[in-house]
Structure formats: structure tokens, C-alpha cells
Amino acid sequence: MIWHQLLSSQRTGQKPVANTEPSRSAFEQDYDRIIFSHPFRRLQDKTQVHPLPEHDFVHTRLTHSLEVSSVGRSLGKRVGEIILQRHPDLAKHYTLFDFGAIVAAASLAHDLGNPPFGHAGEDALSDFFIHHPQGQFFKDKVSETEWHDLTRFEGNAQGFRILNKNQYGLKLTFATLGAFTKYPCPALFPTRNKALRSQKKFGYFESEKNIFKEVAAALELIEAADGATVRHPLAFLVEAADDICYSIIDLEDGCSLGLVSYAEAKALFEGIITKNKSKLGKLEHLHSLPEKIGYLRALAIGDLMDECSSLFLDNEAAILAGTFDQALADHCPSKDGLKAIINLSVEKIYRARTVVEIEAAGHEVLPGLLHEFTTAGWFLLNGTKSRKYHNLQLLLPEEIRVAVAQRPNDVYGMLRLVIDFVSGMTDRHALSLYRKIKGMS
């Protein structure tokens, strides 16, 4: 792979054109389009880990995405500066800010496809088709490939779908779409090798297969097998930014909520603060818990960014050749300290009662909504008359009703649109709508 192709500013469905805004690059335009989009605003009311209303200092998907984007921009610029020195011809067309803008935009969008109720929401949407009779009803009405999509809801693939839906008009550059796609393979992938990081999950549904092919061809991503490619190199930085933020900031939230003691958190942070150890003395001059834990978090993130960017640059040739396929955070010098944080988070944060309660709610609410709205969609496809389901059809967005009516034989397309509707809801909207249609509110 070559950087000139990987940094393509071409957009989906459009021919390459010169940038008409000298003061704002195509990649900065990507960032702006995402941050003003409706799907991004919805992240404000989507759970990261902890329930939303009670504590204003607990992270939502929105604040998490903004922080990941900030770290991603710094990683991109650090890496870009050295790459431009190594490849002088690139400097005629790109700057380190282009690298930063691509990683920042892709990082900003990295959670757009996540459903309500945290990661449990993904399992809840999958379980509907795996376990519920109404979900199983559709098994023989779609292809094997489509069924794999439906029984394995994947937030990354849903995010790629959102970024390419015409209704949002995002039309991002191929470089940003490539950096966004951490798992450049389909759901049905017989030769999947989970030892490779890029194949641990999947990055696009059957409905977006042709779009992914267009992007991959333009970027000249190396083909693997069964519709898969190797990663766009900058996807490693997007992943690293996410890994750094969720590990560190979930620990910060856990300490703020009293689930982890300050002494425990401090010891864990110090385990990954290497380059900035000399600055730890400032802690003695800080008094409040938020100040202390915030300072430790800042030092830890700074050191992890140094480690991950250095590891990327050390392996640039292997990454471009498609032979490096591991998470940077799993191989950086502080990997053991990060694992210790994750182990404690699993034990004391992710299994906290409030977290378990909201996950349990998701497993009831989301399959319940899918049951009602997939039935409404099926009746709409077939012209079946039912006052109840006619009313439910009217609760679907108009663009979904129109699209379903225009494709009466497309069962998979109908199901994807209903899943778009349910997975795109905020936590509060999903719970409120469920209560209303069940007669509880």
C-alpha cells in the first residue's frame, strides 16, 4: 500500500475533484460534517458504561467520542510529522494536519453505530433473531449471508452503514472511511482468523458490500480473502485512541463513582505513567479527588500516546505491507499496566449493579421493539391489514415506510431499516417508546 492512495480525498459516488476551500481541507470537512450530523448528536443520550441521568461527570457516548477524537488527532499529527519526513514527495500534497484530521474524523465517528444500552444493546439486537420466535420467522426469507448479518449485530458495521446512508448526506472521503473501518471484512467469512485484530469482528453488512469494495479499490487496500482486506494504516491509530480512552476514562469514572478507591486508581495509573513520572510530585499540591484523578489521567494518556505512535512508526513498513495486524495498545510497553486496569474494570466497574441493571433493561426493551416493528414492516411488505400494526407503521419514520413500500420483495432491506430505527434510538427514547406501545405509559 502507498500513502498517496491511502490519503485519497475522493468521496463515495463522486469523481476526484480539487478542494475548493483552501482554508479547510477535505478531511476537516469530514470532521465538521460528522459533528453536525443527527446520528452524532444522538450519542449525547447513549450509555457509555454507567446510567446517564444521575451524575453529570459520567461519560456518555458523546463525550467519549469527543475525547477519542482529540487523542486520535494528536496521534495522527505525531505519526504524520515523521511519515512526511520519511516520504518527502508526500509533503508536496499533504501536511501533518491532514493525518490528524483523518484520524480525528474517523475517531469522532467510531461509535455512531452503537445501539442504546451500551454494548449489551448489540447482544440484545442479535438475540432477537437467534432466540425469539418472531426473529426466527425471518430465517428462511433471507440469504445465508444476510442471516449472518442479522444474527450478529455489529456496531462497527452499523456505523459504516450510517456514514454511507444518503439521508444524512455525509459522503466522507475514502481516507476517512478507510481509517474508520477497523474490521475490513464481512460477517460471513469462512476463513476468518481471529488471531488477526482486523478479523476479530466485521466492518460492513451485505447491504454496504459494494460501497466498501469501491472504497477499498480506491485506497488500494491489500486484498485478503472472502471479501476482506487488510486495514487502512490509520485505522490502527483510531483503534489506539479508543483503547486508550475507554481504559483510562472508565477507571476515572469508576473512581469518581466510588466503585474504585483513589489508592487503587492511583497505583494503576502510575503503572502506565513512564515518561511523565517526574511530574507525579504535583499531586501533593492538588486537593480535590477530581483534580488528582484528572491529573493522573492526563499523564497516563500522554505517555500512552507516545508509546502507541512510536510503535506505529517502528512498524510502518509492516503495516503498509499488511503483515502487522495487532492492536497497538496490546503491544506497547505499558500493555501489562493497561491489562491490569481492564481486569479491575471488569471486576469492579462493568459488573456494578447499576451497569447490570441497564444492560438487563436493554435485553428486554430492544427485542420487544424489534418484535413489534419487524412485524409492522412485514405486514407493510405484504399488505396485511391490522389496525395495531398500521398504527405501529405510522410510528416509523416516513422515509422507512416509503422505502419498504417501494421494495415489496426485499425482506432483508426491510429488516435493516427497522434495525436502523431501533438501534439509532437514544436510551431514553427506546425505553419511552417501549413503555408506550406496551401500554405502560
UniProtKB/TrEMBL annotation:
It comes from the Bacteria. Keywords: Hydrolase. Transmembrane segments: none annotated. The keyword Hydrolase applies. InterPro entries: dGTP_triP_hydro_central_sf (IPR023293), dGTP_triphosphohydrolase_C (IPR027432), dGTPase (IPR006261), dGTPase-like (IPR050135), HD/PDEase_dom (IPR003607), HD_domain (IPR006674), PHydrolase_assoc_dom (IPR026875). Pfam families: HD, HD_assoc. This is Deoxyguanosinetriphosphate triphosphohydrolase. It comes from Chryseolinea lacunae.
